[in-house]
Amino acid sequence: PERRRREPDVQFSVVIIVRQMNDYLRAALPWFERQTLRDFELIVVSEAEIREALPGVRIIVSGRASPSRARNIGAAAAQGDVIAFIDDDAYPAPDWLETARAIFQDTSIGAVGGPSLVPHEATFFQRVSNKVYELSSAKTGPRYGRSPRQDIDDWPTCNFFVRRPLFAATGGFNEEHWGGEDTQLCYSLVKAGVRMVSDPNLIIY
Question: Which of 69, 109, 111, 118 is 20 to 30 Å from the Cα of 185, by its Cα?
Fold first, then answer.
């Protein structure tokens, strides 16, 4: 019988930067254990030493470092095909990495971002605040709601995936930036001809 060609698998390195261990990160870590895709590495880059035992987490102590520098340190340690950046005060949906793997089967896509939604337990006023952001503009609104997939030229690194060779080829984050380094990275990727998309199913809270 004819065998169906198997699409190449995609390995992920998830990078989180923190100043020190905190309650946000403690609350987020169990959500990585709940991922339906299990084959990934989780890297935490911390300015201060983390003395708590975090099974399955690679901890890198950076010392005092800007966000761009810390993310570059995490990316340099990454071994996956794709680097996934997420903030410490966010947690992913259980199918976050599974969804990303399906997206990256399209080899024309070099980077992808997903929306940051309020948690299910959010208050009414928190939901209203999120809706204001979602409706703020056609460009930034998709970052906070479930808009259709579209090509993008800028996305925040709180929920952003990029193929590791493309990240390296553009030089990563410009460490002269403290704030705005995510826009700088996206600009470098666009200049290099990298296709970036946003996908409404790539959800973090």
Answer: 118
